Amino acid sequence: MQFRSTRSGNLNVSFKEAVLRCLPEGGGLYVPAQAVDMRQFFLYMGEETSYPELAATVAPALLQGELNPFSASRVAEGAFDFEPELRQLDENLSVLNLYNGPTGVFKDFGIAFLAAVLEELLKNSGPAMILSASQGDMGVSLAHSFRQRQGITAVILYPAGLIRGLESADFVPQGGNILPIQIRGTFDECQRLIAEALMDRPFAERYGLTSANAINPGRLLPQSFYYLYAFVKIKKYLRGDLVFSVPSGNFGNLIAGLYAWKFGMPVNGFIAAMNANDSFGDFIRGKKFAPRPPVTTNSPSLDVSVPANYERLISFYEEAPAVMRNMVYPDSVNDERTLKTMVEAWKRYGILLDPHSAVAFAAAERLRASGDFSGHVHTVVLATGHPAKQAALVAKATGQEIVMPPRFAKLQKPVEPVAVIEPQLDALEGAIASCL
Ligand SMILES: *Cc1c(COP(=O)(O)O)cnc(C)c1O
Prior knowledge:
Helix 4 (about 70-80) packs across helix 5, helix 5 (about 105-120) runs parallel beside helix 6 (about 135-145) and helix 14 crosses helix 15. The chain has helices at about 15-20, 40, 50-60, 70-80, 105-120, 135-145, 185-200, 200-205, 215-235, 250-260, 280-285, 310-320, 320-325, 335-350, 355-370, 390-400, 405-410, 425-435, and strands at about 5, 30, 85-90, 95, 130-135, 150-160, 180-185, 210, 240-245, 270-275, 330, 375-385, 420. The radius of gyration is 21 Å and the shape is globular. Helix content is about 40%, strand content about 15%.
């Protein structure tokens, strides 16, 4: 499968190039250039298929010519020391728990695959450097997945006071490949510095710089795997339609679901579950997109006014507007309804939901009650965050004591940076050069 820019339709690049460049020259985002029919690879898979097995089967079929089945097995086994978990709650409802990774959010899945596949793709070619900005957890996820990967250095930029949960034995000066740098500035300045570094061609090419942010196709593509996994687990019980409910902020997760559909997964719709920040819903309903300023809610990862994947979603609508109107249902869930849903899910099904997952759960319940679907519909709600990530809120809403998984304890441990610099390109270059 090749990739093209959302803006120029005919300059195709390989997966490796899309991952290593991250952003196409001339703007836009990378999207798959062709829809690959993957049905023969997962329609007949048994429900006992493990997640690494599924990934090892699907990835080489998608990335033919770039990743052979042996390499893909190595990548999948090396990436996933955690799995999604599908829980069927009743005949018509399941949750897909995506929070069993090192930092307790679904983003661990994309990062783990990116790290492992990059190591494989870089064999026989030069080294690469992953640049990323973090406010804490993302850095832990990156360090977990990139540590000891051959030929890759992971540079992570943080605002003051937010470096935590890393092991200093993994740092470059100690012989590792993780380089946490503190910026005298804000998170936005960290991101601006990354954008500048990527655009500085000589600098970028000297180190093989790319970005590990959420729009990298190397993170997005593998997120389609857990939709296929859910389908494989549940297909035997399906009597009618299948719908996924997805808590949506930057819309990466939803786009990955749409890719799974493009690859041939039999699915009838996706709920784009938003909180009060729902201006993008107007666009999905066919109106003009007029972003409103973001408001703060109890599901902060959904507090987005212009989704980072905006251009990717637009490209789906440009291709087939009528199909898309029947495929994606927007809904908006306020804070009060989110909390009520956390209580109801606990009382009715004995499950604890983090607020992001509760937004998707509430939207799924509303669609079920609306009668918009006739006949049988099975809804799979994506649980994107571990309830212990917002333990105080979940405990207050449900009255339950939240057990903290041991791996989360170290997420809070403050760590010293390797360097502290001004938010300027020459300072970043200097810090990197002096450490390598
Ligand atoms: C990032 C995140 C989301 C939003 O996912 P997008 O791909 O940005 O739409 C939802 N829930 C949690 C817990 C997250 O961390």
